Each structure stands twice: as C-alpha cells, then as structure tokens.
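question for whoever is on the cluster today: can someone run the full assembly for these? two chains, 686 residues total. i dont have access anymore since they changed the login thing
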Amino acid sequence: MKLLWFHLMPYTELPEDFREKHPSIWVDVHSSLFDPKRAHLMYNDFMDELEFAAECGFDAVCVNEHHSNGYGLMPSPNLIATALARRTTDTAICVMGNSLALYNPPTRVAEEFAMIDVISGGRLIAGFPVGTPMDTCYAYGQNPSMLRERYREAHDLVLRAWTERDTFAFNGRFNQQRYVNVWPRPVQQPHPPIWIPGGGSVETWQWCAEMDYVYSYLSYYGYKAGRATVDGFWKEMARLGKDRNPYRAGFLQFVGVAESREEAMKLYAEPAEYFYARCLHVGAKYATPPGYSSEATQRAGIQSQVAQAAGAAAPPRYQDKFQQLAQEMADLVERGYVIIGSPDEVADQLKEVATSLNVGHLMLLLQFGNMSKDLTRYNTKLFAEKVMPQLKGLFSEWEDRWWPQPMESTLRAAVPAFQPQAGAAVD
Amino acid sequence: MTNPGMTTVEVNGFPCRVWRKGRGAKLGFLAGLGGLPRWIPFLDKLAEQRELIVPSLPGFPGATGHAVLDSHLDWVLAVRHLLTEAGLAGADIAGSSVGASFAAEVAAIWPETARRLALIAPLGLFDEREPTTDPWAQRAKDVPALMCADPANWEKLKEAPAGANSIEWPIEQARANEAAARAFWPLGNTGLAKRLPLIQVPTLLLWGAKDQILPRSYAGRFAEKISGKTEIRVIDDAGHLAELDQPDAVAAAILDWTR
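^ ran it for u. tokens below:
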C-alpha cells in the first residue's frame, strides 16, 4: 500500500481562549492573530517537515488548499509543491488539490500543475476538490448554486488543455476562451493521475468511476466515522461493475506513534486537542451556503437524519460536525479521530483500517495542531522505521494504476543542495 | 379565507405556479426571500379589492427552473416572461425583497410592463459604508428574527402543513433559498443602481422599521435614483418581509398607491 505524508500547515500559536473569544477559525478569523514573523518560522518548519518525510521514505508528500483559514496556511499549495519538487527526488508530490471553480480561467490550474509536473520530472498527483463552502462560497465569493457546474466545466477544460495537441477554442457555459494552448505540457501522459477529494455524495462516486479517478475521503473524524462513507463508495463501485482495487480510494487519518500507548497519550494530547478544539472551531453559519449540496444529496441527508432519529448509525450531518466534536484526547482516541500507540499497536490498527475500508492510499497526518517540529520529526521517523515496514506489503496483489509515472531517474536533472557559502565564494 | 385559483405557466420549459384571487383591476405580487410556500393573509387583503395575480419566480415554492438561469439577464428575461404569461403586462406590480428587485428591473427595462410599482425592501444595491446583512451566512435558528420583526411570522410561513411530504417540503424551502442566492450572491448587488433612472412610473417604497437585512437608508437610495415619482413609507413593527409582520398596513399602503 501507499503511505502519504500530509501537511495542513496549521497556524500553531492560536491563543488558549480562541474558542471562547473568536467566532471562527475560517472566513473571518481575525488578522490580529496572525504574526507574519512567527508564520515565517512556521512555514519554514512545515516545509522542513515535508522534506524530512520525503527523506524518511514516505511514498508521497501532500499539500492542500484553504482560504482565510487559521488551520490551513496554503491558499496556494502549488507554491509549496514547487519548492518540494526542488528539494526531493523520488517522492510523489500530491497536491490535494486546486479548487477548480476558483480559477479564472481554469487554464491556470492546467498550467501550474503542468509546471509542477515538469519541474518534478513527472511526480505530480493532481487533486481536484470542489472546495469547502468556507473556501469557495464565503472566502472566494463563488455562487454556491453554480459551483458544481463550474467545477465540472473547469475540469473538462483542464483535461482538454492537457490532452489536445492543437490550440483549441473552449466554448463553455461559464468559460469561453478563443485560444487554449498550455505551455508547458505535463511530463506524465496523457496527464498526471487525478484524485478527487470528496465528501459522501453518490454523484461524486459515480463520476470517479466513470472517469477512472481516485476517490479520496478527507475527513478529520477518523476511520470509525468514515466507515459508512467508504462502505458506500465500494457498494456503488460494485453496483457499477468496478473491481475492488484498493487503490481506487484514499483515506485520511491522524496518527501519533511513541514507545508505548501511555507515552503516545502524553505526547500527542496537546496537539490533538489544539487541533480539534481550536482549529476546528468553525462558525456554523458558514457550513451550508444554499445550493452547495445538490438536491439529491440533501434528500439523502434528510433521509439519514430520519434513520438516525430511528436509532440507525449515520455519519454526522455536515453542518453538525463542527458542533459535535470531541475535544479531549481520551475521547478523540476512543472515537478513532486519532490513532495512537506503540509502533506495533499503530501498525495493527492501520492494517485494520486499510483492510476493513479497503483503502490503498493512506494519507497520514503525523503533524497536527501545534505539534512541535521535534515531535513531528519523532513521529514521522518512528512511523517510517517501525510502522511503515509492517504496512508496505498490504495489497501487493493489486496494481496502483493511479500513481505518478516519473521520468527515468537518469534523465532527470540533478538538484544540488543549497550552498550559500559556495555561491558567495564564486562572486 | 377561500383558496386562490391556481394555474401553471412555463418559463424556459419549467413550470411556475400562478395564484389568482379577487376581482377588479389587475395587481401582481412577486414574493421575497423564502417565497410563498403557502397562501398568506396579506394576499387576501389585496384580493379584497383587486384581481390579485401571484406568479412564483423560478426556483421559489411552486416553481422550478432556477438552475438554467446563469446571468442576471437570464433572470430578468425569465421574470418578464413570467409576468407576461401570467397576464400582468401593463398592470400594477407589487413585490417584496427578491420580487421587488425584479419588479424594478422589469419596469426599468420594459417601461410598458408596469403601471405603478410598490416595492417592499427590494434587494439589488450594496453600499460598503452601510452593508446589508448576509442572509446566507446564518445559523438556521437566527433566520426567523432576520426575516420578520416577529420571528413567529416567518416560522408560520415555513412550517410544514399537516400531510406535507417530510422530505420534499424542506427541499422546497432550501430550493427557494438557493434560487435567491443564485440571483443575488454574494452581496445582493446586481447593478440595479445603474438601471433605476430608467424607471419612469410612480414607485412606492415600503420599508419595515425593523428590517434586519437592508438598512432603511437604502429606501432613500432607491428614491433618489428612480426617475418617476416616489414615496417612502416606513411600516412600524415590521421586519424585512413587512407583509408577513403587518399584512393589513402593507396591503393598505399598496392598495392606496395603486388606486
């Protein structure tokens, strides 16, 4: 199986009383909380951590896009991905991803992703999320009633921009361009693997099946809450006659490894509680812009509430999630939001997660909340040395058709280490 | 209170409900945020003296078809078509909120469409020095008090009647919210300010004294730009949807203006 190291880049110095004093970490989080000089250090730490994960042998490093968000400091993940392309050699670079409807024209995404793919020698995984309500409709002012149609059309435009040989005119409902001709063209042909981070909508599953894309369920609520959704995905794949290749799916999980479970509880309680109490303090008024969810999804949601009222288990509704959260470590672990333990305990739990959910791409949050750089490195290294070897062999009977196909290493540019003193001597 | 007559007209191939009640000169009414999931006392008041015609805008309760409207031009053409098909060409037109904004648009672009206008707190303008309230970034529990001075009036409008489909009823209310957002996201500024000077007909501007969505000064902004004769009347103890809070006073003002 594939193990991907994911960074959200949370601002690590939110005040202790953030939850009480501030309405939301997202959309209208106050600028007075942001200290650019502290953030300078955070960004550099975070990028060091991503590079360290690559050195430790993770299959990919992952970055993502958020706007006006105190727990996600990457309005442009592409900037980070490009820097990573220059500081890593064989690790896949997973940009998870660019919210297509936010770019005008969406050709911009085709261009920037192609740049990353070329600079990295064909190591890009291209993620195309619709984007959260907070990012797209509120922070970026997109019309929620048109967001999904714009997203689909932008996808079509990007795909054509990557694959058509000649300059073409794109005559869409929302986008018109007389001359579409992307330079550079991606190294990976016909295009980099496309992964779709999504919630639990049947339409998204069907689309992933139709397009042969990876469906990635990025939830902060762990494997227990995620099971219903991932099971729904596989049920739909079976209905559509698709195989159970685990590499069709991705799943996000918070993990903390230590010498023992007790030690892990001690080490990871603070950053986990920081994340769930402060970082996920999202103003509920931003959860449901009208039209963001399709009517089919709304119907399914109302039906599941009816089922829930009748006592059946169902995942929390989107608008309720932020309110229902556990915030204390024991509860976070109990609910499966965060998996902790000794290396063997973590490996056993993740094997169970991977096999029971049938997920071949496990996206790991080994840095979360205000976790220090030292602890992040410890977690990452211990995982790589003691947990990873126990998981790598899983699903070896399946082929991952959705993984980057980089250029041969002998054809790739040598990326020199940065040596400021050597440079100064030449001058 | 007797039930209105109901017919359906097509706009872009989608059905839109048209209610009719009463006798006399025709008077049209276009509803505001939330639309009209049920007949309300305010409409009866108007129908006592006029042939009242109430077409549902695309996507609002009783109608679909909002999802094919991509631009403001699409919307304005749809509303003009709806009014014509409902038999309201040349009639007096009243509207509230969303409906008032479209009534103003149509009267500006096609001067023969309306004889007189009565607009209750129309959307369409935004001044950053005095911003409007975002009706779409709200917790559900806060919405009733934003829409009406007495929140119970909004709740009564939106409460599912006995026997309503427990899934389709909430979907219909969510659709109304989406349709309004589709036309007015994100600020409610549709560029109407540029077209207001084209309105030549006498225009009454009604404003709930307790409107929590649009500052009352916006009435003056409309009055200043409209070329026809205008008058502003503030309705006491009324919120954004003043016709729900004070049906008698709002109906009386409209009937008086369009006499």
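summary bc i know u wont read the tokens: The first helix of chain A runs from residue 18 to 21. The interface with chain B takes residues 27, 137-138, 141, 143-146, 173-174, 283-286, 289-291, 295, 298-299, 302-303, 306 of chain A (CB under 8 Å).
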